[in-house]
Amino acid sequence: MNALLTSVSVPDGRPILDAATRAEVGRAPVRSVADLDRAIDAARAAQPGWAALGHAERSRLLHLIADDLDAHAEELGEIVTAEQGKIDGAGEVHGAAHWLRAAADTALDPQVLREDGASRTELHYVPLGVVASIGPWNFPVMISVWHIAPALRMGNTVVMKPSENTPLSVLALAEIFRRHLPADVVTAISGDRGVGAALAAHPGIAKIVFTGSTPTGRRIVESSAHNLARLTLELGGNDAGIVLPGTDVSAIADRLFWGAFMNTGQVCAALKRLYVHDSVYDDIVAALAERAEAAPMGSGHDKSNRLGPVQNPAQFDIVTRLVEDARARGGRIVTGGEPAAELGPLFYRATIVADVEDGAAIVDEEQFGPVLPVVRYSDVDDAVRRANGTEQGLGASVWGPDADEAAAVAQRLDAGTVWINQHGGVDPSIPFGGTKASGYGLEFGVEGLKAMAATKVIRR
Fold first, then answer.
1. HSE (CB half, 13 Å, CA atoms) of 425?
2. DSSP state, 21?
3. What keywords are assigned to this protein (predicted)?
4. CA distances from 237 to 349, 381, 417, 436 (A)
5. Quick check: is 74 catalytic?
6. CATH class given for the domain over 239-420
7. Does residue 1 carry a pLDDT above 90?
8. Alpha-carbon span 60 to 57, nearest angstrom
9. Selecting from 3.40.605.10, 3.40.50.2300, 3.40.47.10, 3.40.50.620, what CATH number does the domain 3-235+438-459 have?
10. Where are the alpha helices (DSSP H) in 106-181?
11. What would the pLDDT profile of 170-213 be if each residue is shown by its tens digit?
12. CA contacts within 13 A on the Cβ side of 77
């Protein structure tokens, strides 16, 4: 029996289904807006005492929570694997513990702006109040920790609204946090979209951190406008990769494939569009197809698998629609292109689509699933133009034999992060955020701490 799951599942709650088997995992509480109001009031009352503990004590407690996450990684990971379909749920939990320690240990000291003998001016970073975390379903534990670790470190309290698709893992995460924190410092409220909308618009919220789609991000901006809550938004990404001429296909093929298909393609910053020079196009397509056909697919409960299900029926329908539209437009389905119904209702075969162009839905829209369109180009300037020809600007990558040449191309791409000969790697000490309609604000490292604080200038 999974004790963590038992502690958060309620008999009269909403059924949550296993992404792979569609069997019931547990039942999530369905909280009301009135419940949310009470949680925010309690968080506001708890915040001054939490801030008064100081950085050293808050960091000590965050380390205790990280240790507890590691100790319960298998237990919490089972819930993540069931709800989300992830192959290595425990790995996500261990990663969250690592991020938590990094937030605890990152230094952010007051900055001396001027000291001339007659006066001294300092810039301090102080808590904001209550931070709202509205999370996605693709990395429910990891991204929740991305939100709440820096918020807590800086002396804020947090109210979390998990995705309706993966609430149990976030509720279980909050349970582990609560074991080590004063009452009401962290609260998770599971409910419908009405609860999420109320959280974004609530006058008691000082800061909103949201990871999810661009349309939802726009609604959060609108909802938060009347109370001027600060925002960090990590929104959709239709990340482009450019493979330059002269690239050694065998040297990059594995990294290229997993840059697109990590977590079965359900990653905001995964590679979603690949522009490949004529000279290596056929070889790249063949190498990607070979890896797609070889990657074991199945339930995440079997750790020998590498690819899992699409998490929910709505996303499965999007993936199916985009592939069928590409097929109708004359795109070449090199491999995949159909559901893997023998594995379960939400499995879709790893799919490589060649001979498509910009303007096709599968290129212009974010697939967020196990599908990669490969687009041929002959001129690097044209590839850069096409890569930039979207409203998204989260990540991008450039692949080639000359690092300086690749870096020069990277400078021309409109994206918050551009990787060279890799795609999608993030680090808790390196700031991450998007441009254009992929959001604004930075997470991770010192910049992530600053984003969870107000500034105060003291002159004396």
1. 9
2. T
3. Oxidoreductase
4. 22, 22, 11, 10
5. no
6. alpha beta
7. no
8. 5
9. 3.40.605.10
10. 140-153, 167-178
11. 999 999 999 999 999 999 999 988 999 999 999 999 999 999 99
12. 23
Q: Count of CB atoms within 10 A of residue 110's CB?
A: 11
Q: Which residues pair with 240 in a beta bridge?
A: 273, 396
Sign of the torsion angle spanned by Cα atoms 437, 440, 443, 446: positive
Partners of 122 in the β-ladder:
112, 458
Question: Active site residue: 78, 83, 164, 234, which one?
Answer: 234
Tokens of 445: 């490292």
H or E element in which residue 121 lies = strand 120-127
Residues of the chain with CATH 3.40.309.10: 239-420
| Residue 374 reports pLDDT greater than 80 | yes
Both structure tokens of 295: 């990657």
Quick: pLDDT tens for 277-325.
999 999 999 999 999 999 999 999 998 999 999 999 999 999 999 999 9
CB atoms within 10 A of CB 218: 13
pLDDT digits (tens, 9 = 90+) for 74-108: 999 999 999 999 999 999 999 999 999 999 999 99
Tokens describing residue 68: 């507890």
Distance, in Å, from the CA atom of 342 to the CA atom of 425, rounded to the nearest integer, reads 32
Nearest in space to 147 (alpha carbons), one of 181, 188, 197, 183: 188
d(CA 160, CA 174): 9
- Dmax (CA) for the chain in angstroms is 77
Rounded to an integer, the average pLDDT of 248-270 is 97
Question: What tokens were used for 277?
Answer: 């020079």
Residue ranges, CATH 3.40.605.10, the chain: 3-235+438-459
d(CA 45, CA 183): 10
Contact call for residues 103 and 147 (beta carbons, < 8 A): no
256 close to 394: Cβ distance less than 8 angstroms: no
